[in-house]
UniProtKB/TrEMBL annotation:
Belongs to the ZIP transporter (TC 2.A.5) family. Residues 1-23 are annotated as: Disordered. Residues 1-20 have a biased composition (Polar residues). This is ZIP family metal transporter. Keywords: Cell membrane, Membrane, Transmembrane, Transmembrane helix, Zinc. It comes from Herbaspirillum rhizosphaerae. InterPro entries: ZIP. The chain crosses the membrane at residues 33-58, 64-85, 97-117, 129-152, 172-196, 262-283, 295-313. It is found in: Cell membrane. The keyword Zinc applies. The keyword Cytoplasm does not apply.
Amino acid sequence: MIQAQLRNPLSYRSTPTSAEHNAPRFRLRPRQIAMLSIGLIFILVKSYEGLSSFFLAHPQVMPALLGSSAAAGLTALGALGVLFARRISERTQDIMLGYGGGIMLAASVFSLIIPAMNQAQTLGYGKTAAVLLTATGIMLGGLFVLAINHLVPHQHFIAPNPEIHSARTSRIWMFVMAVTIHNFPEGLAIGVGFGGDEMGKAIALATGIGIQDIPEGLVVALALRTLGYSPWKSAGAGILSGLVEPIGGVLGALATGISATALPWALAGAGGAMLFVISHEVIPESHRQGHETQATLGLLAGFVTMMLLDTLLG
């Protein structure tokens, strides 16, 4: 018997153990599959009805979501650039950062702060009161971003040539978190812009922020690439850093829909948040490598670009 089994091992059949006998078998019967399918369809229909009702009740949210999602898409486009270029010179990076800072600076002034003062006057505030309201909103917006900076661990700059690989990894991901925090006020500004009465200015704002998101996504991806991450993982991290923008866009649009009096506050607050990011992150980073002149020229070019967009589209 044993010899026969050795000659033909396939003829041997092991006896199932008690554990195999007792192992649960998950098999869906046709009736269960049908019930699950009906339940899934019901959930999808109800979700669609709920979203339709929500967008009807808040008509400013849909364009804000589309605009901020487009900006996030351009962040992704920039991050995908790492698949074709492993690195770019530090001077070029600083020029691109300066250019993005210039766009943000002009956007905060022309598309957020000035409209906030105009909107306040439309609501009946005097000129002085409108200026004071806007100034207070700017300060509150800056303090809001400052609070996020203190509450969320992050790091604005990547320390050069760290000795320990794990420490370097931590620093790079903290840098990615800093860019994610940076992107939230941008999405907020887009949402607030679409919550206002000037659609042209909102489109110009979303366009300008989207343009400056392209080099931003590339810089994040290149930072991870220098660590040794694969191009696809580096691009993925850059893409993830921009996904917070649609969230900010929806929240910004909802803030403007609370009441008519909330709009100038929201516009001024978004402008202050962007001013804080420019001074606290963009300009220091673009000047850190000793290319202050080139970065400043890039900032001027970005400012002019956004000014033209606001004039042509607004």
